[in-house]
Amino acid sequence: MMAGRRRFGYIRKLPSGRYQASFIGPSGMRQTAPGTFRTRTDAERWLSAAEADILRGAWLNEDLGRQSFGNYARAWLRDHPRMGPRYRETCERNLRLHLAALEGVPLRAVTPALVREWYGSALRGKGGRASIMQSYRFLRAVMTSAVRDGAIVKNPCQLKGAASDRAKERPIASPAEVVALVEAITPRYRAAVLLAAWCGLRRGEVLGLLRADVDLGAGSVTVRRNRVELLATGAAFDAEPKTDAGKRTVKVPPHVLPVLAEHMASWAGPERVFVGRDGRPMRGDAVRQAFDRARRRAGMPGFRFHDLRHTGQTLAAATGATTKDLMRRLGHASPAASYRYLHAVDGRDEEIASALSELALHGDASKLPRSIVTKH
Fold first, then answer.
1. Mind listing the pLDDT tens digit for each residue in 57-83?
2. What is the pLDDT of residues 144-188, one digit of tens each?
3. Of 202, 225, 248, 329, which one is the catalytic site residue?
4. Is 309 an annotated catalytic residue?
5. Is the pTM of this model over 0.85?
6. The one catalytic residue among 190, 309, 310, 329
7. Is 341 annotated in the active site?
8. Does the annotation mark 332 as catalytic?
């Protein structure tokens, strides 16, 4: 058995008389030619072609390309540095329920045509459109990683519009409707409704509050954690917010403080603000069930708990809150998510039209009401 060293790659002669070629790829792993060669010259040609591919960025890790999409996707989920447990669980469920047809397919065989066929079949199936789009986004992210790893040359997820889930406009409750919900819900949950509606807290952020996070004297609540509940196992635990912006102190509107103070005195636990009747951390499903009963009593079918957050921030935008104000209040790391709350609400356009007439009359923008001047 003879071996030969070159500037790039490694060639050795096998006992059979044929030649084997290999090299250390950009990933740091040794890659061997898929077959052996009759002559040393043939092996050298294969190595030269591999080196050229690497230099022009077209090198493929053939061993990795033969790995199934399912195995690669599970490893991607396992090793992702910023993957939250709830989203990981969602992706695993979508892999099992919606991407099963692609699970055993080698990465290099996942072509644009195959993706298009899978997507069309999935939309014709029993899965919801939102779940299919979510699955497509997961597929696209995994295949993007496969491109970076050198398993494939180009991401096969090229379907225009397939990843955009254009949800219908969520309803906005009026202040009177928020009051109706509070009056209709079990007293133990009233403060949760108001913190979501007027402070923009997510349900997990509400349930993650500790007594130390509530400062009634300063009129504020501080978000330091998010309560996470996994559907598959039922496990529940406190987790860090996804971004640093998620950690924030939010001022509580004065009209909410009396209800929050009553909750702290009557319903809060020794450590946590929201606890169940057994004294243990309140479950998200308990809030959901109580809210479902309340919205039916208030005549608001289809209105979700998360819509309270949308309501409060939309009304905050209507008061003249800037994009940066909303980002701080919502805990958004970028302005994109906050822009949705800057759309017009009923009566706003008439106010703007009147203000424009004032501007035409006085010719001075300083005469405009402060709430009309939008700052970014």
1. 666 777 788 899 999 999 999 888 777
2. 999 888 888 889 999 988 776 555 567 888 888 999 999 999 999
3. 202
4. yes
5. no
6. 309
7. yes
8. yes
Cα atoms in the Cβ-side hemisphere of radius 13 Å centred on 299: 4
CATH of 175-317, one of 3.50.50.60, 3.30.70.100, 2.60.300.12, 1.10.443.10: 1.10.443.10
Q: What share of the chain is helix, strand, coil (3-state, %, to 5)?
A: 50, 10, 40
The DSSP string of 179-224 is HHHHHHS-GGGHHHHHHHHHH---HHHHHT-BGGGEETTTTEEEE-
Return the domain boundaries, the chain: 2-59, 69-148, 175-317, 346-376
Q: In this structure, are residues 4 and 40 in contact, taking their beta carbons and an 8 Å threshold?
A: yes
The b/e string for 295-333 (b: 16+ C-beta within 10 A; e otherwise) is beebebeebbbebbbbbbbbbbbbeebbbebbbbbbbbe
Position 367 scores a pLDDT of 47
